[in-house]
Amino acid sequence: MSTPAILKALTEKEIISEEQASIISSYETSKPFSLHWELRSILYLGILLFTSGAGIIIYENIDTIGHQVIIAIIAFLTAFCFYYTFKHSLPFSWSEVRNPNKFSDYVLLLECTLFLALEGYLQFQYKFFGSRYGLAIIIPTIIFFFSAYRFDHRGALSMAITGLASWLGLTIAPMSILAENDFGNERLLISAMILGSLLVLIGWLSEEKELKRHFSFTYFLLGGNLASIASLIGFFTKDYGIICFIVSICLSGFFIFRARKAQSLVFLLMGVVYGYLVLSYSVLRPLGDAAAIVGVYYVLLSSAGIIYFLLNFKKFLGIKK
């Protein structure tokens, strides 16, 4: 229903007067329209198109341009982006820094992307790092962590955490954890549990010690999903399931507690879903053959309970209607 129709209905029911309706209508028609998200989307798209276009031009003209020239251009652009970001940045602070120059945030993302392109080009064309692939991954990871904290950029922090996971042979993106990680490899499984738990711990310390506390959500989300999924798989498939069970239950309890404190539905879902899976498996596994029969009733009853709980999540989180 449009604004004029709503105002007309309210006026006819004598909820508001004609004068009030006129004031509201005047305000609605003359108020400024925010272009914040539109501009952000355009800037992100511009960075994507620029890097993609540059890659296509380089690929199609590699014989004409020459490798050295391409490397020099990418290096120059990377250095210029870093200089621009540093020049327009505010002094470092452990609290959140709100830079009025929003363009520098996108320049920093471009810098990180260009640095990866430069490093990848050097490795592909000249084997700059030889077979030391770990070194090739950890260098940009350190730079991204530095950039994230120095320039207060959560995008750079996500790239740094992703690089750290890649250094250990892991994929940390929430939608790719199961599809692209070989959790059949015991070393990777343990690494995922340790890294994810460590990231959650860093996020908690960030909040408790007031050290870039707004970064905690990124640490919790990426680390919590990685550690929870790895511990669940370990509990389902490995002999040391009791350790994975303890890790999974502790993480679920932490996120449920954190959800109530931060009034966050995301953390509540993480805690409830992962906790439900590990507890359900713990209940049904000892039943053996009877699990198939009992499991039907258990799933029905427990699912109904979870649905009821999630439908009333605002009460649990302390959110007023």
Automatic annotation (TrEMBL):
Q: Which keywords describe this protein according to UniProt? A: Membrane, Transmembrane, Transmembrane helix
TM helices/strands, residue ranges: 41-59, 65-86, 106-124, 130-149, 156-176, 188-205, 217-234, 240-257, 264-284, 290-311
Keyword Membrane part of the UniProt annotation: yes
Q: What span is annotated as the signal peptide, if there is one?
A: none
> Where in this chain does the record put each DUF2157 domain?
10-155
Enumerate the InterPro entries for this protein: DUF2157
Q: Which Pfam families match?
A: DUF2157
Q: What is this protein called?
A: DUF2157 domain-containing protein
